User: Fold this.
Amino acid sequence: MVDRGTVVWAPDPFKTGGGNPRPWLVISGEQMPYHDEESIAIAFTTQSHHPGSFAVPSDAWIRGQPNQQSHVLPWTVATLKDDLHVVGTQGTVTEQFTDQVTTATISYLDTSQAETT
Assistant:
C-alpha cells in the first residue's frame, strides 16, 4: 500500500511508447476500496504554464524534494495499481499540502458549487 502524501514514480500518460515515468502525488487513503492494491494520484510537472496548476512549496516537502520546482495538476487524476504502475518513490509531502491538492481536485468534480444559469 502506498501511503497518502507519498510522491511516487509511475507511467507518464503524456508520453507514447512507454516513456519515462513521472511523479504522482497519492491523495487516497484507507477509505478507498482496495487501498492495499490501488491509489488515486495527481500528476506533478515541472511546467508552470498550466492555468490552475500550483507550485509545490519547499516547505511542503517532508523528504525527497527535487532539484527543480514542481507543480501539481489537480485535474490530472490516475488510479495506480501499486504493484504494476509504481516504479519508485520520490518522497513525501505534508498532510496540509495533500489536503490542498485533494480539495482542488474535488472542486473539478463537485457540481453543487457550480453556478446555475
Notes: The chain has one domain: 6-113. The first helix runs from residue 95 to 109. The chain has a mean pLDDT of 89.
